[in-house]
Amino acid sequence: MAEITLIEAITQALAYEMRVDENVVVLGEDIGTNGGVFRATLGLLQQFGPERVMDTPLAESMIAGAAIGMASQGLKPVAEFQFVGFIYPALDQLFSHAARMRNRTRGRLTCPMVARAPYGGGIHAPEHHSESPEALFSHIPGFKVVIPSSPARAYGLLLAAIRDPDPVIYLEPSRIYRLVKQEVPDDGHALPLGKCFVSREGHDVTLVSWGASLHETNKAANMLAKENIHAEVIDVATISPLDIDTILASVAKTGRCVVVHEAARNVGVGAEIAAQIMEKGILTLLAPVQRVTGYDITMPYPKMEHLYLPTEERIIDAVYTALEYK
Amino acid sequence: METTFPVVANFEVTYHQYLGENGELIRPLPAFATPDVLQFLYKEMVLVRTFDTKAINLQRTGKMGTYPSILGQEAISVAMGNAMQKEDVLIPYYRDQGAQFQRGTAMEDIFRYWGGDERGSNFRHSREDFPICVPIATQYLHATGIAKAFQYRKQPRVAVTAIGDGGTSKGDFYEALNLAGAWNLPVVFVVNNNQWAISVPRSIQTGTQTIAQKAFAGGFPGLQVDGNDVIAVRQVMSDALERARNGHGPTLIEAVSYRLGDHTTADDASRYRSKEELHAAWEKEPILRLRKYLIAQGLWDDQREERLLADCQAQVAQAVEAYEQTPKANIDDIFDYTYETLTEPLKEQKAYAKRFKEKAHHG
User: Fold this and answer.
1) What ipTM was assigned to the predicted interfaces of this complex?
2) Which of B118, B138, B145 lies at the smallest CB-CB distance from A104?
């Protein structure tokens, strides 16, 4: 079996689900002939035709609003937003309608749509192309917020997102679109939403991350292992609803926790994780939960973005801080 | 050598009207307008006004929350809903009560909605119709998506949506027209140009001569209709629906009327518009106009009017009773519809909330 990248795994998942469910349609800017600016929809137009692979006019609120209408009729639209930095005009539609359609009609109308968007820094893209707003979406009741960290997770989680009966914000870490390759069987097997994955076992400290930052986190764990510090690494994968139980079980074992995310620190997902560990597992903690995050500044342009992104060095530093508590 | 530049495009906005301001017929009646149908439309408009009066009264007496009156727009709303087929989908704004009733949406559900109960949007009939849209203009885009679903499935159905004149200033309005034109979607866009967006008059809402002409930016026809002439609105709606159903794409209908009431019960229009303007508008209102016509034709009289008012009041009273007897909502309701399946965090929060249910209950 050929190894594929994360972006190819996304294409593979879209094609699989479009083959088995004719209600699945994709829409967005440049997704047809061009196959999307990152090529996530490459070949879909040829396979499924323009009625199901819709190049839209250049208007993000329109993409979201039309997807809501389609979803109310039982279609399963997968809308691509070219970069998450361009999704903001669609927030009125997403927040005011997609997220609450089921609730405000007491289940009469629903919104089984997926909003896909590349997010995060590290690809030397222009201004507005590198933000990490997962906390923003996680704050809105009614969404599920999903972030894959590998080709296999991208495939399984996207299938789950499309099949989910509620709107899912599916944020794709563009920095790792082509970073690693993996064998990903095209078997239509979805991964569960709302579950964290323990991607490395250890007993000294719990490292919690998601998306592209998981790679620096894994590198840090490798380096720590050489110092005889054994980190457990958790890929959160579904940011909302958060599977705190898996994190608590790990912290109960290690007593120490470092949360790593690229997004700004203030009111970030790391704060929520830390608060829930404090509420439900404070007596298992040997040290305060550490956060390694982006700063509370506007995402720097490419020349300076390396100063913003969490690095192995910062993660290891936080682990040593946590280990100082006896 | 040429001295002038060629005209590459021409656009025209027609104005549609059958009944003059005094109820006189100014052009031959369209085929649908039989005595029975006209009497029916008249009765439905009176029912909407009876409902509206009661709704304001319920708000004033503390039995319902803020409510947006439809006073003056009964013709547009009734004609809109009446022209639709059952299988079409209505995507209303918050002043579409008449269209909603034509679609089978229950009056008590509208009371429930404005009474602060989500169950008011769980319509028993009109199951695919959208709930009342409070954010401005967003509903226009939902209509395009619904229309796209019809087109994709090759169903001969039409999405019908409405908006006020203020809403036409929003980006979603233009994005919807643009998409509907680009994709030739089966959708009818109605603009209730009632001259006022809360306190902002039509004259400073947009610089265009008409709102109808905004359709041309989307690449499809736009027309103006006298929104106080139920016959004209019903006819242009039927034409637009047929056009959409036959695959010929969208139409924008600017229905010119006047908001005779306040924006909502929380508003006081006397702060920003003159008594003279309001009195002049009352002279043109849609119910009076059709009544004058029907009386002149011998199709209506005082006895029938009396019976109709009594009948409408009885219907509305029944709806009020159903509203007031709505079973109390369960605390589960506020949690159980956020997702299809309750998430782990919500299970926990619901269990917690239940501990405080009795103390928090306001009846």
Assistant:
1) 0.96
2) B118
